[in-house]
Amino acid sequence: MFITPAYAQAAGAGDTNSMLMSLLPFALIFVIMYFLILRPQQKKVKDHADLVKNIRRGDTVVTSGGLVGKVTKVVDDDQIEFEISDGVRVRQMRQMISGVRAKGEPAKESKDSKEAAKDDAASK
Questions:
Q1: Residues in contact with 55: Cβ distance below 8 Å, sequence separation at least 6, in sequence order
Q2: Which of 13, 75, 103, 124 could form a disulfide with 79 if both were Cys (CB 3.0 to 4.6 A apart)?
Q3: Transmembrane ranges (predicted)?
Q4: Structural domain boundaries of the chain?
Q5: Are 51 and 57 in contact (CB under 8 A)?
Q6: What are the pLDDT tens digits along the chain (124 aa)?
Q7: Count of Cβ atoms closer than 10 Å to residue 19 Cβ
Q8: Burial class (CB in 10 A: 0-12, 13-18, 19+), 63
Q9: What's the farthest any 2 CA atoms get from each other in the chain?
Q10: pLDDT of amino acid 124
Q11: 108 backbone dihedrals φ, ψ, rounded to 5°
Q12: Taking the domain 56-101, which CATH number applies?
């Protein structure tokens, strides 16, 4: 026999340690992926679900297809009805709503319109 019992025992313990060290980078990659990709995505899904759940009559909605309209009727938990033009009503699945503007929320002004308003006020 060329291998002593002490050497064989040390080799067995080293295999477990080296196996653990070879799996450590994979565990670190998984943890980093969780915090950079999975966790923010879960938060985004939760925020969208809250947004869709709180749609009320009178809200202005933007669909994922780009249509903008005013909610006229909340049909049920899955559908809403909104008006995109005078007398033109569309039913839409709630999950396909990408944005909601509340009744009283004003449209954002551009810099040009703000500067024009300041110029008008200064000239008077």
A1: 61, 71, 74, 80, 94, 97, 100
A2: 75
A3: 20-38
A4: 1-53, 56-101
A5: no
A6: 566 665 555 555 557 788 888 889 999 999 999 999 999 999 999 999 999 888 888 899 999 999 999 999 998 889 999 999 999 999 999 999 999 887 655 555 555 555 555 555 555 5
A7: 10
A8: middle
A9: 107
A10: 52
A11: -70, 135
A12: 2.30.30.100
Overall residue count recorded for the chain in this entry: 124
Measure CA of the first residue to CA of the last residue in the chain; give whole Å: 107
Q: Rounded to whole angstroms, what are the CA distances from 108 to 43, 54, 64, 67?
A: 26, 22, 20, 18
Rounded Cα gap, residues 32 and 23, in angstroms: 15
